[in-house]
Amino acid sequence: MALVAFVYAGWIWLQENPQHNPWAPLDLRQERGWATAAKLELAREDMAECRAVLTSSEVTFTALDPSGEGECRREDRLTLLHLSLTPARPQMTCPVAIGLELWTQDLTPLATDMLGSPIARIEQLGTYSCRRMYGADSGDWSEHATGNAIDIAAFVLEDGRRISVLDDWDDEGGRGQFLYAARDRACASFGTVLSPDYNAAHADHFHLDQGRPAMIGACR
User: Which part of the chain is the Extensin-like C-terminal domain (predicted)?
Assistant: First the structure.
């Protein structure tokens, strides 16, 4: 009887805390829990599941038809309608959309706490580029080749200040601290996060992609 009571209490607790429940659907509006990483990985591997998560989480998006050929064929292609990105509405994969949704939720209180103003918009350098890594003639294909990555250059606050990766990464005050914190928070939502700490090619942006699970990804 004690075991049955314990199991029942555990089941009730999971129903009340779906972020920790591995059987509950992923809802991007919930706080992160023990089961969030595994649910994110399921969505990363299954396009239909991923789009179902966006829909059930009330994230507005437009699904686009497949495009491209060969290594640059994009079966998974959509645009987010509500995020304040500049240029607006870049085409991306669903896992990148989920990563951006979670990351921007983290950035809102972060900017307010550290800089005294929320973020008005995020400047991005693009998602899709049919190329190999670093523009080489051979070697591995970039995650940008399928739109499974996004490069972030700067954050514009509601009070008008612009926090730039290129200009403020080495700032010893609040701007630099915010950028480091933003980079670290991205690592919970993206499989690979590369910053100016990684190499000179990333001196002016954060590279965020979903080519691998966030649980075992690169965060540099």
Answer: 49-220
Q: Provide the token pair at 54.
A: 């966006």
C-alpha closest to that of 155 among 194, 182, 116, 185 = 182
Report the chain's C-alpha Rg in angstroms: 19
Q: Model's pTM, two decimal places?
A: 0.91
Cα gap 69→171, rounded to integer Å:
43
Please give the Cα distance from 157 to 120 (Å, whole number). Answer: 5
User: Which pLDDT score is estimated for 57?
Assistant: 96
d(CA 171, CA 175): 6
Return left, alpha or beta for 140; rule: phi > 0 is left, psi -120 to 50 is alpha, else beta: beta
- Predicted local distance difference test score (pLDDT) of residue 12: 59
Q: Single out the residue of 152, 37, 146 nearest to residue 98, CA to CA.
A: 37
Structure tokens at 156: 């514009």
Distance, in Å, from the CA atom of 180 to the CA atom of 165, rounded to the nearest integer, reads 10
143: left (phi over 0), alpha (psi -120 to 50) or beta: alpha
Residues of the chain with pLDDT under 50: 6, 8, 11, 13-14
CA dihedral 23, 26, 32, 38 (to 10 degrees): 60
- State the Cα–Cα distance between residues 75 and 72, nearest whole angstrom: 9
Give the tens place of pLDDT for each residue, 148-157.
999 999 999 9
Cβ atoms 210, 99 nearer than 8 A? yes
- What's the rounded Cα separation, in Å, for the pair 178 and 14? 34
Distance CA 144, CA 205 (A): 14
